[in-house]
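Need Holliday junction branch migration complex subunit RuvA's 3D structure for a figure. Predict it.
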Amino acid sequence: MFEYIQGILETKSPTYTVLDIQGLGYRLSTSLSTFEKLPAVGDKVKLFVYTHVREDQFNLFGFWDTRERDVFLALLSISGIGPKLAQTILSGLTPDELIAAIEQKDEKRLNSISGVGKKTAQRLIIELKGKFESEMIMAAAEKETGLPPMNSMEKEALMALLALGYKKPVAERAMARIKKKGGYTTLEALLKDALQVV
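Structure prediction for Holliday junction branch migration complex subunit RuvA:
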């Protein structure tokens, strides 16, 4: 429903944030990972949003970036994990730490998170292992090269590669490679080079 909310940071706590937008306060449930990145109260901030609607509830969940939200949504795909537990999991581990624990089948680390028992940890590993491979590739590439996340033109090129039938990990690996070159002014030029390295 909402992609993001931008406003003045009115309140911040380890579990929720209040943003003031022209006199209207929006309360968003947030993880500890997001809380640690928030600026000082009174500063402007932009949080990406997931809207959870039920018959008797309307809750907003806020995220520092789309990566954290994507991991949150992946958690929601697991039977028995609702928004509150997903948020608790992302408070126990950062998105990168969680992905690493899943990929390494580290049940012990997953069990250390409040609310995550042995069965839930096993479900996380069984159902999500391998699903984050492309995200890990991009994160590693960005960390290694010091490059920022993909801009809108790069995202369009990625979508074009996927539309052409390339698997997501392959397409994202190609994008990570050509980001080093940079200097692209048109989508066509970017896509042409991407097709040469896939």
